[in-house]
Amino acid sequence: MCAAIVLAALGFYVYKLSEKSATTVNPIDSGFARSMLLHHAQAIQMSMMMRGTASPEIQALAQSIIMKQTREMGVMEGWLTAWNEPLMVEGPPMAWVENATNVRHLDDQLYQAQCKADGGAMAGVATPEQLDQLKNASGIEKEILFLELMLAHHRAAIPMAWFANRNAQTSLVKALASAMIRDQGMEIGWIQLKLQQLKKS
User: Fold this and answer.
1) Is 2-18+26-84+93-200 CATH 1.20.1260.10?
2) Tell me, what DSSP letter sits at residue 24?
């Protein structure tokens, strides 16, 4: 809790030093921060289920996700506080993509169309049933399920981050989105290789 407060304060401080006043915030900037908070929260939840129940390699991945995404959540909470924006998603979580205007990049236009087709729902999110299954699984079955769920989770985060990177207003949001694309892209490659190994064993 203390760490989250410190991180939120850091996000607030960095925003105040580097960006314009809260009245100029773009809905894409705030929408991305809120939706990614929700997305990160589930990734952390799934990763915490692997503590003490998986191989050292997978536990290391899970711990890395917990640390990295907790830090990013603190920064995004700080931004939203600085912008006088709510922290919680209200309504469809991807409405900020659906309602965006002047979207020029083809990939972003296709992503926007997909979000509209999904009714603003967030892709890649594990269902309550899948979370229960992960919680109750053990051994290699648990490891495979965790990696499969995290793979879907990361793959859904990448186009969301690209959309923010190309359409957000603030340089801090663009930079964080770029870091997420890089980090989660690397993790996707590792997860795919590990899944191949586990399914052969």
Assistant:
1) yes
2) G
Q: Where are the domains of the chain?
A: 2-18+26-84+93-200
Distance, CA of 183 to CA of 165 (rounded, Å): 14
- The CB density around residue 124, as the number of other CB atoms within 10 Å, is 19
Task: Please provide the DSSP assignment of 148-195 as one string.
Answer: HHHHHHHHHHHHHHHHHHHH-SSHHHHHHHHHHHHHHHHHHHHHHHHH
> Residue 86, SS3?
coil
User: Look-up: residue for tokens 């998986």?
Assistant: 54
The model scores a pTM over 0.70: yes
The predicted-structure confidence for 48-99, as pLDDT tens digits, reads as follows 999 999 999 999 999 999 999 999 999 999 999 999 999 999 999 999 999 9
d(CA 195, CA 193): 5
DSSP 8-state code for residue 87: S
